[in-house]
Amino acid sequence: MIRITFLGTSAAAPTVTRSLPAIALKREGVLTLFDCGEGTQRQMMRYGTGFDVSDVFFTHLHADHFLGIIGFVRTLAMAERAQPMNLYCPKGTARILEQAIRLGILDDRIFPIEIHELAPGSAVARDGYEVRAFEVQHKRPALGYALVEPSRPGKFDVERAAKLGIPSGPLFGQLQKGSAVTLEDGRTILPSEVVGPPRRGRRIVISGDTIPCEATAEASRSADLLIHEATFGDDDVVRARQTFHSTAAQAAEIARRAQARRLVLTHFSNRYANAPGILLRQARPIFPGVEAARDGMTIDIPLPDEPEQPPKNAQD
Ligand SMILES: [Zn+2]
Ligand SMILES: [Zn+2]
């Protein structure tokens, strides 16, 4: 299971009900953070994500997206954390993070922290998935991230295997892995006789702060979930452009073109923080299932059983 918890859904400044940007993603017990705005550690307590983070991916180094790392690291150091932590940020921004981390350190009691700059197109490989960085268009170097799993072997048809007289045991495993097996009576069984087509892995995309851009649409093809910023509504389309942000309708258009399976809007300007319904009304004609994130909202994405399919062409 992958569980996503929205820890902060406000843009620029917090409100009473919305903290600054941070998203927790837990996959098979491994907790990853995307951005770490001011107040993130308290939100993690409130929503029960735990503190056991090994990777933090920063979309960009605007203050609202990273100030929370200072206090978080300090708390972890005081709790005598020993495991290392990896921080990832766009190319050319590591220095800012280094300074922030130094601010949070009381003395030499600090666990190992490694800061890595990511170039657009690079990926961080982990057990069973990778996190790919893609370049988005914001006021300073900024990345979107796609968590991508490889496809899994198809479903093993136990009933059919029994009918074919295959004894249960190691032969099942060999067939599942794609090797043909020979039975004692000399018959050869091909994997395709008992194993379904490969099943697709999951894809979860986080846009970060950006104007609507092709790279996000490209990364979000058939994504299980696209989390796209929607700082503004239609009335502020000019302002969105000037500040390198998106409107809800623009985010919906990206999701529609990418044929994403699910779209959740976040990073709301204070003007819309109490009324995300306005943004949903503007986005819905373009992407009917669109949702608005709120702090503490969780989304579970189970392993899909569907076979892998090449994404259909985008309808422009
Ligand atoms: Zn922001
Ligand atoms: Zn920003």
Task: Tell me what you see in this structure.
The protein has 316 residues and is an alpha/beta fold. The protein is built from twelve helices and 16 strands. The strands form three sheets. Strands 6-5-4-3-2-1-16 form a seven-stranded mixed beta sheet. Strands 7-8-9-12-13-14-15 form a seven-stranded mixed beta sheet. A two-stranded antiparallel sheet has the order 10-11. The longest helix has 11 residues, at 68-78. The two termini are 33 Å apart. The model has no long low-confidence stretch (mean pLDDT 94). The protein binds zinc ion (ZN) (2 copies).
Short précis:
The protein is an alpha/beta fold and 316 residues long.
What topology emerges from the helices and strands here?
Blueprint lengths: L1 E7 L13 E6 L2 E5 L5 H7 L6 E5 L5 H4 L1 H11 L6 E6 L3 H11 L8 E6 L4 E4 L2 E8 L5 E7 L9 H6 L6 H7 L4 E2 L5 E2 L1 H4 L8 E4 L7 H6 L5 E5 L7 H6 L5 H11 L4 E4 L3 H4 L2 H8 L7 E2 L5 E4 L15
Parallel strand pairs: 3-4, 4-5, 5-6, 12-13, 13-14, 14-15
Antiparallel strand pairs: 1-2, 1-16, 2-3, 7-8, 8-9, 9-12, 10-11
Helix pairs in contact: 3-4, 10-12
This protein binds zinc ion (ZN) (2 copies).
One zinc ion binds next to α2.
